[in-house]
Fold this sequence. Notes:
Elements: H1 2-7, H2 36-62, H3 67-86, H4 88-95, H5 98-126, H6 143-150, E1 156-161, H7 169-182, E2 186-191, H8 197-202, E3 210-215, E4 218-222, H9 227-239, E5 243-248, H10 265-273, E6 276-281, E7 297-301, H11 309-320, E8 324-328, H12 338-341, E9 346-349, E10 352-354, E11 359-360, E12 363-370, E13 383-385, E14 391-394, E15 412-417, E16 423-425, E17 444-450, E18 471-475, H13 483-487, H14 492-504, H15 508-511, H16 527-558
Helix pairs in contact: 2-3, 10-14
Amino acid sequence: MAEDRLTGTNNSQPGPSADQEPTPNPRPTEPQPQTALGLISVIAGWVGVAALLGAGVWWTVSKSLFIGPLVILIAGATLSAFWLIVNFAILRERLTTRRGQQIINSTAFALLVLGILILVNYMGVRHHIRKDLTETKQYSLAEQTRKIAKSLDQDVELLAFISPQSFGYEMISDRLREYEMLSPRIKLHCYDPQTNFDMVKKYDIQAEGTIIVKSGERTEKVTGATEEQITSAILAVTTGEKTKVYFLTGHGERVLERGGPDGIGTVRRSLENQQYDVQTLSMVTMQEPQVPGDCAALIIAGPRHPLHEKEIKAIKDYINRGGKLFIAVDPPPAPNLHQILAEHGVEPLDGVVIDPRRGFWGQAQVPVVTNPPYHEITYNIEAIALPDTRAFEVASAPPQGYPGAPPPPQSAKSLLESSDDAWLETQPTGTVKKDPDERGGPLTLAAVVDESQSPRRGMPPGTPQSAQGTRMVVVGTSLLMTDRLVNAGLIGGAHLVLKSIAWMLENEKLVSIPPKQQTRTFVTLSDIQRKLAMVFVLGVVPLLVIVSGGLVWWIRRRG
């Protein structure tokens, strides 16, 4: 007791009971010394992780698991497994603690989120959902291109030779990816012509940006990378031989060469891009004029001199065989080809159409047809300029094929018409005004003749419909297809010609590919709208940020 008083201790307090757990020592235990095996396993684990990452990067770059990355992969997996075996007991002990359970739950949640992201990306790769919000659908492929791609019954390869550093790389690569997304049969391969010398030599690549379209043994080379060219090349390698189109020459028709504003080189190049075989036909040198048997369509583009009777007979024979004919006749004194057109219900009228309501930039002698009535030819063409055009009279019913035969259905129809205020000027010299005896509008500026489901002329009744008749398109001016109008931005006439040929040949896969023009969209704000925008950006938005911050501060202070 004396010792207790001297030391100031109180031994009268009860000690811990037998069933009460002793209070744990708050001081941390001394770390156990690292063994040599444990130190080696730690080094092996880090080296193994680095080896696995290196093998993954190597495979990502080379896209092939050859001997190099394979050896590194096996070594990394072995070293990582060695670390796991040596430290398995320690890991199991640590994972049973509360902190270990938290680590496991966090890791599982992270893996779940990562798995969801991988699944979403995988579905995005397999199923593409895109929306083109541009007014002209500038970044979308045409509906007919989609039909062609989805109807493919054989594999098609697109070999693009373009460097990532070259101008236009993004535009071309994006367009080609659009094709690859349309069908699993289309495969895209991109090669840098500056590094892939073997492929450049194999396909004889002369210019960067060249695209090789390949299906089996057939190949087509595309240098422009437009949708028209690529889609047409796909058709060429999957369908076989090219379709031959002939342009009649020898009577002052429009020339096909590229030079000269009055030539039709643009139309010719577009036909060639659509995989047509464009040829010229001169019958004036033939002893017995005739249209070749492989002629799929004959184009007569604005003759200035009359055709010989033998040539007219040869063209009529071609029509009676079911031939397809596109005719562009110019106003007088050019020949009107009455001998050919009248038999099919189209009568050319002499004169020039004057349309003061729809004249291009107020030029009444250049009628413009905007938003024409629906037809496969005029579909998606917004405006067609027809300078110095003549008009036609379309018969209500075509003449009988032979005596006693029932009248065939009406095959000739108006395609383009002027406004009601137009008239046919028969004396274009001097002061141009409508005379009482001149025909008024609306006037037919272009007509179509479709006898494809009617028996051919001169054939007896009961002729099967498989013996298809002719299809014809007639326009009153050849200027609409010239390079002069195309260079001036009036491309509707050239597209009318191209789509007319596609319609005559019943090439519906290309007939409705519309022209795409880049448009600029501007937002014009009034003075009040501009002031409201400034108040919202400089006043309302900062005020909302300040109020939100103050509200958060107040809630935290009260809590």
